[in-house]
Amino acid sequence: MNFGLVGLGRLAAPYGVWAALASAGGHALAQPLPELGRSALASDPAVAGAQAQVRATEERLAQARAAFGPTAAITGSKSESRYTEKPAENMRPFLTKQVALQISQPLLRAASFSSLDQAEAQLDQSQAQLQQSQIDALQRLIEACFEVLKARDALALTHAQQAATSEQLASAQRSFKIGTAPITDVREAEAKADTIAAQLAAAEHEFDLRQQILAETVGQPVQGLTTRGLTGERLPVLPVASIPDWLSTAMAQSPQLKQAEHALLAAVAEVRKAETAHGPTADLTYSWTRSSETGSATSIFPRSAVTSQVGVNVNIPLFASGGTQAKVREAAALRDKAQSDVDAARRSITLGVRQGVSATLSSVSQSRGLEAAVKSGETSLRANRRGYEVGMRVNAEVLDAQTKLFEARRDLSKARYDAWVNLSKLKAVSGRLTDADLAELEGLLVPLEPDAVQRTNRPSREEGR
Description:
465 residues; alpha+beta; two-stranded antiparallel ribbon; 12 helices; 6 strands; 14% strand
């Protein structure tokens, strides 16, 4: 019964169907998932935006550090004035030049320390945001890849069901011609064939859509993915008792929680910065000035001078019409909001971890149960076909057993892919989804074996009888 990829069973698609599906993925060699992951990260706009945000916060940190250093400026001026005396109205022009150097070194600015702490927290926050965007991009890639493979399997199973239904229709027509079956059997088989044809059209459109979504996720057409799939023997191993460990890891590594925590630190620093607006500031200043003039209103003699000055400027805020207190209250309210965001992030991560563990275990259990359902469905189909041949079953019962078997095979394929997708979601919530997980999934995808496909070209003798 093993089909190699998804355990489709002996009633599988003809070799031409699989060849068409393989060609839809391209004739080139299959691209490994780590390579697709790099392409997805390079083309993802959310990752690019997070990288730009990191660069911006790095410059903001540089600005905060620069507030502790000296500043220097050179100014120069050149002016011409004219002086006229009355009643003689003699006009005398004067030319004045001046060059000044001013240096200032902050001595006491408490707000600068808060600004530095805030900039460092914002940089950590943007880095956590970048990590989260990268994890989200990898998660979207895994889901897009496995959605393609699920659609590929569903399409192949629909083709196989169409072939089996066509054979059953031919059998009903032969039995009707020789008088061993009523015309209702033929009509039922024809109705089932029409239903399968409609399902096949929907499966083809779904397969095309999933390939387009994957191409958009990666930023380029993906080659060779549809020639591979999961083996039925490999499923995630996840003990139920591991939930506390996953929760502990998530609380320590989740980028979502780190973003909220660093945002809280930045908000606390903003409160301190607002409070320091009440305090004094002091700066050490030095100025050097060189000036020259060709004369003045009181003198016709040219003059030049060089002056220098060292001093300390102290500024003590006294009154700001309540604006400073309002800024403190605003910063405190934003700090409380940031604390609420941290609590919400913890709850969201806890719920996400529990849901991820539950979904993974459910998919694994469902896969095990559907494996048994497929075997029972094959047995039921053989029994109904034999009963139909000896007149103990009607054609509708055979078609119903056939439909249930293909539905079980489709659900089995979906459950196997969902188990690994749910595990990747769990790792994403916990902040543990990396390139290594793509490499692990790459090792699970095995190529189609042409000889195995050829063996599934037609139903077995037991099923065909």
